[in-house]
TrEMBL record:
Dehydrogenase E1 component domain sequence ranges: 47-229
Record-given protein name: Pyruvate dehydrogenase
GO biological process, one term: pyruvate decarboxylation to acetyl-CoA
Cofactor: thiamine diphosphate
Region (Disordered) location: 1-38
Lineage start: Bacteria, Pseudomonadati, Pseudomonadota, Alphaproteobacteria, Hyphomicrobiales
Single annotated GO MF: pyruvate dehydrogenase (acetyl-transferring) activity
Length: 230
């Protein structure tokens, strides 16, 4: 089990993909930070720009009444998912909450299919029935889009258990926000993952506010990454 807390809107592609080995994390040792070439940098920038432009258009269309239901945008958090996806391999799975448009695009899902789903059309990734919060792609190993705060954390842990049971070497990337971090099932999932040594990375996308509530007013420990060592 690993817990990665990311502050949205501040990390570039390279920073979002920073990793530290157990050896490199020793006091005084240099972190094990991957080096990217120009093509990788450009690919990361392209993905982040795609997400930004897609979300800007989505917000515009929502204001025009062309997108029904809820529409939670990923603006300012693009580097988080793009960086994490650069660290994955084929077969690794992704699951997240309701702010999921960016995750789908970063996983390689067709932007036209995502937009068709947002506008309730038959060509959408969930046949126009899922909307903004409930998209899915078996081919891209994307397991949603979930509307209930924190519900995806238990499901992501279950995906990791399936990987562990099947011994397939895949990892579950389970995303949730600072608002969901205080949900009871999140702690239960942490405990289960550590107890059974499950192949899961919990990615906390900390944008500092859960609706209108600041992190400091809801969490006794505001450095969420420390929860992974408790």
């Amino acid at each position: 089990m690993a817990v990665a807390a990311r502050k949205a809107g501040r990390a570039g592609a390279g920073a979002a993909n920073k990793s530290t080995s157990s050896k490199g994390s020793a006091r005084g040792a240099a972190p094990n930070t991957p080096q990217f070439d120009k093509n990788q940098d450009l690919a990361a920038y392209n993905d982040m720009l795609l997400i930004r432009r897609f979300e800007e258009k989505s917000g515009q269309m929502y204001g025009m009444g062309l997108i029904g239901g809820f529409c939670h945008l990923y603006i300012g958090q693009e580097a988080v998912v793009v960086g994490m996806q650069m660290a994955t391999k084929e077969g690794d799975q992704v699951i997240t909450g309701y702010r999921d448009h960016g995750h789908m695009l970063a996983c390689g899902m067709d932007a036209k299919g995502v937009m068709a789903e947002l506008t309730g059309r038959r060509g959408g990734l969930s046949k126009g029935k899922g909307g903004s919060m409930h998209m899915f792609s078996k081919e891209k190993h994307f397991y949603g889009g979930h509307g209930i705060v924190g519900a995806q954390v238990s499901l992501g842990t279950g995906i990791a258990f399936a990987n562990h049971y099947r011994e397939n070497g895949n990892v579950s990337l389970t995303y949730f926000g600072d608002g969901a971090a205080n949900q009871g099932q999140v702690y239960e999932s942490f405990n289960m993952a550590q107890l059974w040594k499950l192949p899961v990375v919990y990615v906390i996308e900390n944008n500092r506010y859960a609706m209108g509530t600041a992190v400091s007013r809801a969490s006794a420990q505001t450095d969420f990454s420390k929860r992974g060592v408790s």
